[in-house]
Amino acid sequence: MEKLRKVWWLIPVVLIILYPVTIGGKSAYWSGILVFAGIYVILAVGLDLLMGFTGQISVGHAAFFAVGAYTSAVLTVKYGFSPLLAMFAGMFLSGTLAWVIGRPVLALKEYYLAMATLAFNEIIITLIVGFENITGGASGLRDIPPFGIFGLVLDNPLHYYYFVWAVVLMIIASSVLIIRSPFGRTLVAIHSDELAASTFGVDCAKYKTRVFVLANVFASIAGSLFAHYMGFIAPDDFGVSTSVNILVMLFLGGIGTIYGPILGAIFLKLLPEITYLVQDYELLLNGVILIIVLVFMPKGIYGIFMTLRNKAFARAGK
Amino acid sequence: MGDISHLVQFFFSGLTTGSIYALIAVSLVIVYKVSQLICFSQGEFFIFGALIMVTLTSKGIPMPLAFVLSILIAMAIGALIQQVLIRPIQGSSIGALIVMTIAISLALRGLAMLIWGRESHILRPFTQGSPLQIFGATLQLQVFWIVGITAVILLLIWLFFEKTSLGIAMRACAENPLGASLMGISVQKTALFAWAWGSGIGALAGIAVAPLMFMQYTSGVMPMVKGFIAMSIGGLSSIVGSVIAGLLLGIIESYTIGVISSKFSDTIVFALLMVVLIARPNGLFSKS
Amino acid sequence: MKKMLAITTLFFVMFFLTTNVGLTQGTSKAAKEPYVIGGIFPLTGGLSWLGVYKKKGADLKVELINKAGGVNGHPLELISYDDQSSPEQAAKVAQRLISKDKAIAIIGTASVPVSGAVASLGNKYKIPVIIGSGYSVDPQKDKFIFNSAHKTDFACARPFQYFKSKGITKVALLMPIGSLGELGSNLARKYAPAYGITIIGEEKFDIKAPDVTSQLAKLRTLNPQAIFSFCTGEPAALVARNMSQMNMNIPLLVSHGNANPGFLKLVSNLTVPVIVPAGRAAAPEEVPDNDPCKKVVVEFSKAHMQKYGEPANYYSAEMVDAIDLIAAALKTTGSSDGEKLREAIEKTKGFVGMQGVYNFSPTDHHGTVLDDMMVLGIKDGKWKVLLK
After folding, report:
1. Is pLDDT of B1 > 50?
2. Inter-chain residue contact B16 with C48, CB threshold 8 Å
3. Domain boundaries, chain B
4. Reduced to 3 states, what is the DSSP secondary structure of residue C81?
5. Which of A104, C186, C329, C384 is the most interior residue, by most CB within 10 Å?
6. What predicted TM-score, i.e. pTM, was given to this entire model?
7. Is C100 within 8 Å of chain A by CB?
């Protein structure tokens, strides 16, 4: 039993690996859906580190999603960079930018922090639209080459699926390790009581900025993966409504659990595959389903798992 | 350029948009003040008010009656939502509550699309008449209505919270829910009240503003975001502050468009917002 | 622990089931397999009002074709999805149409970014896509993409022709921030010299803004004779309304996307002369009798009026032509192979559609010409042809 507890995570990993080639039937369509799901898992996990564990609200997470996507796109399309190098450039740019604005912005609390992050998201979008000579403006940037790594071009959705999910799993693993590390425990301490933490000598600003940089570098990676998959990007997909969607994924799945947001991201990206059948009612239905989940599962989808697990343990007399 | 009409126009344009932002900000602040909740559904009450009014007037109901009915219907919807959806999850974290209001706004938007379709609707201005021309610049008459309604709301709110026992009790409730409940003030009733009145004022804002814009099911989003911005600048709990902030926001936007750059005006305004937030973390007009 | 395992497994089982148990849409019991055409329309989001026009037009056209016996004996099946006015969503539904619904061609997409996203997939999977937006098709790179909207250039050049005939030489631009504004601005500057027009100034505005009097006031100081604002729907109506309120009663040129009854309703009471470039669909009675397109236009308008109680418009015409072109290509090739269809469409010459007579070629994926556009004004709440 104890052994199973340690390696339970292997089950979803094996499922992820086997799914497309077995039941998924090598479908380009489902590979594509799951590529998007995976990209949003990265976004959600990064945001969870920032919001769930460190308690810093961000309604602008899509800003660095955009920075990563556009850096990758512009460098590969206009300057012939290799996708891998462009992605690293995006990560570096995002990290630097996050570090620069992180300090002053993270000093804000709650609602004001939310508004500042929202404002920053909007600023990035307006700059992308404004500098149309570089970014293609509101009309978008086309002809982004598919991701290529070590000479292998990932043109096929199925191949890209494996690549993306490999990255996703690495990010999940890193996040889990971070949470269990002293760094992670400090973040949680800051979340519960920042004042108390600082009286213990913790440089809260430093830790908050670091996790902010980390979360946004993850978002940047997601952006690069997105750009190379779409082949075409436009500012519409990186606005505040996208940031709000990611936020919803967090709460839907169960904030502050890493696994919760993963479930939330997958759920929200798969939901349209059911609701599209009732076209006119889709918008209403999405809202209603969200409401139902929030009312009946206030701790998110992951919360249900936890409750059931605890019940199981209680029954087993542990 | 000898005549200053365009400079005056910038001011009038700013006053027009600013008055819209101010009125919406007021509805947001009222909900927050009483229930500590940032309500993302306000944008939808905004359009519901306007669209219900459009439907009622198109059926021949006279404007004043339609006005009152629309607000009452919106209040009823707000109260219903609070009882059925908010109350059960009252104990959840702030984040969960906010996400619930987001979910509600999606559902309401979907409902609006089903009821009123996807086209744009027009609402007649409250008073017919050509716009005012001063110094060669134009100011629409409806703006006076918006400013007037905002002023009346401010006065009524002030009277309510300062002079009536119920109002004082609600303020106490917001500041210290446990203490207030120990004193016999019903936290439940207060929350219900906040939602009902918040949605009512949101609907009122929508009706007042609709003649200046076109209304369809997605029209609630932008005004709400601007309302939130005004609220952050003015301070979350300051009603007067949010009004001033809303007007300022409109005017600054307008002059930035007119004098600096219409292409990057949004960039500049949002950058200014970030600066204000960082420099005065509790809003320009808060007490701290 | 066992329970948690059970739940996890259940979750994944459900996941597999939803992805594989056929929740297919629209099964047809016809004798022959239907040709599936995919439709991508903005049915929610900012552009939903025009997505509805497109879908209605497309639905009716497919209905009419099937009533007449289909194509090569096969019925046509139109499977439409909502792109939510988002390129990401459009990419997803395009993938769904291509991989799951096995669409042989795709029509629709109403905005430049959305068209771009779908074009990317059309080129990749070698499925012909006939779009209807301002997206500029590069026949070299977009081999599989065609456009049944008139070349956006015409929507600028034709009205400029009209301006020239009226002695208007100083035009100011009030462009929306967004792809249409970028297009409009570039086109205006490109075509102005050819018609003796000078672009004296440009301002931008946010399409969600409730007021543009500031920008108008600024432009007014330059004494323009006309304003060109390449936007569609509410923003265009707002500019018109603000101009009327400011007594700026000079011609306002807007986009051809406004050639629909909804827009007419929004601006008919205003004093500003609004100029709208359009296709023949907007005013079927005004099309000359010797015009080869007259019959097609009049017939479809009648059918549209009968079914929906409103006249056909620019968007319906786009979709009708798109479907007709695909049907014609299917007849020519007798097969639904993407490459063959593409070739057939590209070789199409002298095809009589609602928007004009199409002549495609490896360098021209629009097919229509400048004179296929009319210039409309508004009088007494109705369209009035100013230049045909």
Report:
1. no
2. no
3. 23-219
4. strand
5. C329
6. 0.89
7. yes
